[in-house]
Amino acid sequence: MLQNIIAGLDLVMQWSNLLTVLVGVSVGMVMGAIPGLTGTMAIALLVPFSIYLNPVAGIAGLVGLSKGANFGGSIPAILFNLPGTPQAMVTTFDGYPLAKQGKAGKALRMALYASTIGDTLSDFVLFFLAAPVAALALKIGPPEYTAIILFSLMIIAVAGTERVVEGLIAVGFGLLFAIVGTDPVTGTPRFTFGSLDLSSGLSLVPTMVGLLIVSEALIQIERMKRGAERKPESKEKENDGVSLESRISYNDHRVSWAEFKQCFPWIMSGVGIGSAIGSLPGIGATIASYLSYANAKRRSKHPELFGKGALEGVAAAEAANNACQGPNLIPLITLGIPGNVAAALLLGAFMIKGLLPGPLFMQQNAPMLYALFTVLILSNIVTFLFGSVFIRLARYSMAVPELVLYPGIMIFGSIGSYVFRNNIFDVFAMVFFGVFGYILIKCKIPLAPVIVAFILGKMFEERLRQALAISGGNISIFFTHPISLGFILLTIVSVVFLMKRKMN
Amino acid sequence: MVVWFFIMPWQIGGEEEMVYPRFVVIWIGISGLLLVAKGWRERAELTSDDTQNGKVLIQVGIVIILLISYVLLIQCLGFLASSFLFYVTTTLFLGARNWRTVLLAPGMMLLCVYILLEKILNCPLPKGYLL
Predict the structure, then answer these.
(1) Which of A8, A156, A304, A499 has fewest C-beta within 10 Å?
(2) Domain count, chain A
């Protein structure tokens, strides 16, 4: 093991990799700080460019991007009451009241400390749990795999979305798009409509860029055209009479040792909640931060301060949403099954690099895995250092005019789609998926299950057909294997429980 | 129904190959029926806010047409020229009137893209009659 750790360190400790982490974190932080752009969008935009980097540098850049964007999302949440990422919503509850009191610097610093502590501890959870889970995963066969993928898809459809039926349809669309290409058993073409470009299936990058970037740009353009342009500074001046300058430059911007000690228990409970939620597929960081915030409020000595500017509220929310990041990678690394869209995009990046996460990944690519762990920790250190500086400059990232932002990201998305295979067909595919994603959003159908199902679709079909081939076409194979039966029962119980809760 | 009766027999060869696509189509079909039932139940809850603003949708449609034209133009004009044209047209359409916003932002961005891709990453961008 020690040998593998050293080999992993050796892979990472090169100037080019360190520079990629730094660039990834800084770009992620800027993109996360711009409302309308999320960490997931940042990864989708930059995945195609990672093919020009070595595997470690490519993965390092994307991990840095994700971590930077996660913290970046809390900056507009605190300064303007506009969460930069969905999971930063809970941070606004106390972060923004603190900013109105002239304590924006204090709130931002606490968010940074809680984020990096939460993220780092959760990476250790991944480090210690990945090996035992992978050892268990080695013992499972096609029927068990099929049941686990079905469980993940159903949970992502039901728990990860507000609307259950729409989530199920989204999974169906993802599976349908994954069929395009050639039959994995017989090799005959399916849904290719005579096109050579479709014979190898729909390419991952244009699909992701279209669904995540172009559709979101169209939605934002629609919002702009409806006349609801984002003018946070002027609105705040009207509403509160507190200027941005006075919020930032107020003297009380440091977190004292006493304040940190007061917040520490909520950071640790946030880490526990975030790690537990993060290891389950599809549930997500937003729910973790809500639960952590509610827990801190219920158990605090001063619950009346929550919602009015309690530093503990910021700490609890930020620690939990960042603590999801490490455990989110457990199903990805050990089973090759992504737990959320960001993990699905990372899986895409791994596949582009010719690496296939799964039970054998730890055995076959142990140094690469330890390189990933090193990159995760390194990205947290860079986030902490760069974040301390970025807090002072954050307000400028909000100054990017929306009029140039959305056409710009559509062009950037086109470049990404093109450079992936140097094929103009992929740019057309991106436009198709952009328009399709826009229509889905208008129909209130979530996009995250489409993407995860699209990525898992091929694996699901292969495992399902392998299992049926073993049993001679008898579906009882899924009910006679204990792990498979367990996951099928777990799927039914979870879906019924979650649907009942949503109905209530 | 369209996929099941028309596209699948046309696009998929044998019976064995049909099994999994049929499973997926059934999944979508059942979810679709549930959605129709849900929509029927919730129809009374619709308010005027839920109805789409036709004018705004036409404007989004124009942006989509601009995007499709841009991709078509890439092959004729080249990537840089068509991107510049799309950027300027879309920014103007969205309401920008300041020449620095309209010309400088696309110019700077495309220059950075050119240096990053062509010079640093050695990735050739599509060429056309212009750039």
Answers:
(1) A304
(2) 1
